[in-house]
Amino acid sequence: MTAHTPEQHASETAETSIAYLGAQGDGAAILPDGHTVHVPYTLPGERVRIAHTASGKWSLVDVLSPSPARVEPECALFGLCGGCTLQHMDRAALLAWKTGRVRAALEKAGFSDLPEPQAFQVPPHSRRRADLAVRRQGKDILLGLHGRGSADVVDLTTCPVLHPAIMACLPALRQTLRSLEGLYRAGDVRINLLESGLDILLVTDGPLSTADRSRLAALSSEQSIPRICWQRQGDQGLPETAAQTGPVQHVLAGSTVNPPTGAFFQATAESEALIQNAVLEALPPKMGKRDSVFELYAGCGTLSFSLASRARVQAYEGYPPAAEALKNASGGSRLAVECRDLNRQPIMAKDLATAACVVLDPPHVGAKLQMKQITQGKPRSVIYVSCNPAALSKDASALQAAGYRLTSVTVIDQFLWSTEVEAVCGFTHESSRRSRTGPSR
Q1: 2 secondary structure, DSSP code
Q2: What are the tens digits of pLDDT across the range 116-158?
Q3: Which band of pLDDT confidence, cut at 50, 70 and 90, is reported for residue 5?
Q4: CA 428/CA 275 separation, integer angstroms
Q5: Fold of 92-123+265-429
Q6: What is the H or E stretch that residue 210 is in?
Q7: What average pLDDT score do residues 288-301 get?
Q8: How is 164-198 classified by DSSP, letter by letter?
Q9: Which long-range contacts (CB under 8 A, 24 or more apart) does 89-98 make?
Q10: Could you name the active-site residues (predicted)?
Q11: How far apart are CA 303 and CA 425, in angstroms?
């Protein structure tokens, strides 16, 4: 079996077996001299022939004995486009591997008696968020993703991950980009598929001309794109609206939000619902009417409205446009919103101690200073939504040291064929016997 990878000049070859997958999805092989090397596009248990390339890395030459989990990649661009790293792996095996990553992160944090994780996986063609690179190449425009470990852009002519509505707009978008005077050499396009349709943020390396704005307005009208915003590379201010033909709306747990351009939402509609359900199931049972939930890193309200159906919610979000959108949509006394940068001004322990539950969905790097206040305040329950097993392990170790036990784990593979994994973990404080209105004295 020959590898589906670009050919590279090899200075040395070897036959070896793959022991396990590393965090980046590359197979780990132990060479005869004892060194461990990582080889892309390989799977555990396989016997492979690998080559030591001129760049100093090892590449796959041939699969001599394939794993039962090996499948034919679904995309013709796999191995060129860097968007997917594990399309050669059966989806069931992929979900099991990601579940194992979450397990390992929690065990590293000190939790030895883990509850059995619930595991879910989204279908292909469901991702509603895309961050694409733009490059001029002669008279053509490349619109797609970077090659793996490369600055080169692979033109995205097909994709089994992205929602069909996003893929359908790319030819017209590519044609418009080709004519833009404000796109000198490079830019970026960020696309959200909302309830109201596509919402596009265009970033270019030059200023838009009057003609450019007319072209974007035509694109918005012809493709029924409610809003196209623009920002110049390096600008620190908010993007400006270049064209708008209708309202921009998204529905979260029955509530309608008018989000800012480029707003963060979960990658798929399916995973959004799964995360919401997992958080609700992890809430303390029999919450009273006076119980309150502190929601940290609330965004535009992915979890806020679901939580507000069960308790009073105090939501905090650091990005002002997102906080404003959530505040405008809150519509009731059960959901209060405050704009606050939690990495610079965390909610203090004495306030968190009064909460029946603290729910947090921190950025990729984790909760940083906020975690220290959580572990000092010791709220009865903590629900942690994670997109990074390394950050989860670090923050969960602080909870374990503070006396929390792990009560639930939900794993959601919403980033299909990548190494990324989402997890929702519920924690309860071992010694918590406090009243429903405040901490015990």
Answers
A1: B
A2: 999 999 999 999 999 999 999 988 999 999 998 889 999 999 9
A3: low
A4: 19
A5: Rossmann fold (3.40.50)
A6: helix 210-222
A7: 92
A8: HHHHHHHHHHHHHHHH-TT-SSEEEEEEEEETTEE
A9: 89/43, 89/417, 91/121, 91/416, 93/43, 93/69, 94/121, 94/413, 94/416, 94/417, 95/119, 95/120, 95/121, 95/411, 95/413, 97/21, 98/411, 98/413, 98/421
A10: 387 (nucleophile)
A11: 14
Contacts 24+ apart (CB under 8 A), 26-31: 26/85, 29/58
Closest CA to 370 of 398, 342, 334, 329: 342
10-70 and 92-123+265-429 agree in CATH topology: no
> pLDDT value at position 434?
46
Q: Give the chain's largest Cα–Cα span.
A: 72
Q: Is the sign of the CA dihedral 33, 37, 41, 42 positive or negative?
A: positive
pLDDT confidence bin for 437, thresholds 50/70/90: very low
Q: Catalytic: 84?
A: no
> What span, in angstroms and rounded, lies between the C-alpha atoms of 227 and 245?
6
User: Does 10-70 carry CATH code 2.40.50.140?
Assistant: yes
Q: 347 and 353 in contact (C-beta within 8 Å)?
A: no
* b/e code 150-165 from CB counts within 10 Å (16+ = b): eeebbbbeebbbbbee
Annotated binding residues for S-adenosyl-L-methionine, written as ranges, equal 266, 297, 317, 361
Burial class (CB in 10 A: 0-12, 13-18, 19+), 57: middle
Task: Name the CATH code of domain 129-256 (choices 3.20.20.80, 2.40.50.1070, 3.20.19.10, 1.10.760.10).
Answer: 2.40.50.1070
Does the pLDDT value for residue 292 go beyond 70? yes
What are the domain boundaries of the chain?
A: 10-70, 92-123+265-429, 129-256
Q: How confident is the model at residue 333 (pLDDT cuts 50, 70, 90)?
A: confident
Q: What is the model's pTM?
A: 0.92
- What is the rounded CA–CA span in Å between residue 146 and residue 270? 26
Under DSSP, is residue 305 helix (H, G, I), strand (E, B) or coil? Answer: helix
Per-residue pLDDT of 338-395, as tens digits, reads 999 999 999 999 999 999 999 999 999 999 899 999 999 999 999 999 999 999 999 9
Which residue shows structure tokens 């990729």?
364
